[in-house]
Amino acid sequence: MGTVGDNRRRGVRMAEEPELGGSVAGTLRMAALMTARRAQPPRVVDASTLLMLSAGGESSRVKAVQRVVRRVTADPGYQAWRPPATPWTDGLLDDAGSGVVSQALREALLAPRATGWPKGGPVRWHVSVAAALWAALDEARQAGVGVAGHIHLVAGLLRDPAGALEGVRADADELIAALRAEPAWREPGEPHLPAVAQLDMARELHDRTGLLGWFDRRLRDGEVGDSRYGSAVAPSVMWEAMRQAVRLDDGPVTAAHLLLGVVSTGAQLRTAGRTLREGLRPYDSAPDVLHAHGLTARRAVELLPAVRPADPVVVPKGRSQRVIRTIWPAWTAEAVGVVDRAVELARAAGHPATGSSHLVLAALHDAAAANDTDGTAVPLLRAAGADPAAVRAAVEQGLAAVEAAPSPGRRADRSPAKARRLSP
Fold first, then answer.
1. What letters, b where the CB count within 10 A reaches 16 and e where it falls short, cover 256-290?
2. Contact (Cβ atoms closer than 8 angstroms) between residue 360 and residue 290
3. How far is 225 from 227, CA to CA, in rounded Å?
4. Phi then psi for 193, rounded to 5 degrees?
5. Please, what is the angle between helix 356-369 and helix 233-247, to 10°?
6. Going by C-beta distance under 8 Å and a sequence separation of 6 or more, which residues neighbour residue 67?
7. Residue 285 needs a FRET pair 20 to 30 A away by CA distance; which of 54, 116, 121, 368 works?
């Protein structure tokens, strides 16, 4: 059984590791979803699966990429590019590890696993996938960019450092040289901003008027509907907390993960240069407050292991599904309590939506009530050098300036029946 470290050594060594971009993460996720739906096992994603999916992507209009696609699908057929059609009895990847590739592979399994694996077993990764991802990161490093995009993934797959693609060897060097000659190869890929994509899909980043505004409201109601949260912000933060717990292999979800979800969502919005629509901004000052007090997404990731509870109380799946309709990863009673209390705080204040500010206040309230013995939010803030009382006061000050607003016609006391639709 291979490991990510084995494949990194087998593939390339890098002085500094760029990030895997959004198109690469999307390709991995699509490969996992397609493989999960495969009728018969083995459900294994190999390099050829990614190569077949490379016809799309942000660089699909680049001539060299189109040339690769034509070559892959040319007569006598793309089957020549696939690994030997034998059952996978070895070469399966153990994705345990803290590297960027391990994190990306774990994250890609969140969507298919969140609702339960189909009969026949889970999706597994072949070692050729990790080797190709390390090669893609090396392509980005050689190009001098910080984000590996679609064109770098295609080049990394063609390099085939694991030797899994039989048909690639004949003209791979020529195709790789053509890719590297493209101007797109020297440009960074689009960053991976899943929270922004989720909020954008729910039309929570749009303040358009007229016919376009009406269209946005219709789509927003279709995504959020009569959710108890009143907007897509709270479910997006919760999904980001789950995503971080999975990619970091640091479950179950705790209040500390929810704080990480808040600051990570804020960081992604800043990277994208986007803001929430005007009606939601008063309830979402928490990301800026936490950032100003020293809790950044990177710092929170570094500190999570130090505040991990020794014996977390995990709630039954049915209980966590009242929060967000997934069965994995597991949630702690602390995290579920924070979300429930955040909804209560928003409702008591007459606010039409539960925002990140309510989540932070609920996390700090529950921790204080437990005298910090069972909570993870206050220890995380203190480890980051922040004063929990000052953070709480700043968030409360932001909410205090908001007058109680009438409900926009949604029933805030109903269960999040459509929260699952907000999950990517």
1. bbbbbbbbbbbbbbeebeeebbeebebbbbbbbbb
2. yes
3. 6
4. -130, 70
5. 60
6. 175, 178
7. 368
Name the pTM for this structure: 0.85
Res. 194: pLDDT tops 90 = yes
Identify residue 170 by its one-letter amino acid code. A
How do strand 147-148 and strand 19-20 relate by DSSP bridges? parallel
CA neighbours within 13 Å on the CB side: how many for 89? 2
Q: What's the pLDDT tens digit per position in 38-77?
A: 767 778 888 888 888 886 677 778 898 888 888 777 645 4
Helix (H, G, I), strand (E, B) or coil at 253: strand
Per-residue pLDDT reduced to its tens digit, 314-329: 888 766 666 777 778 8
Cβ-proximal residues to 160 (8 Å cutoff; 6+ apart), any chain = 47, 128, 131, 132, 168, 169, 172
> Rounded to an integer, what distance in angstroms lies between the CA atom of residue 326 and that of residue 246?
13
Please give the radius of gyration of the chain, using alpha carbons only, rounded to the nearest integer.
23
H or E element, residue 32? helix 22-36
18/250 Cα distance (integer angstroms): 23
Three-state DSSP class for residue 351: coil
pLDDT of the residue at 210: 86
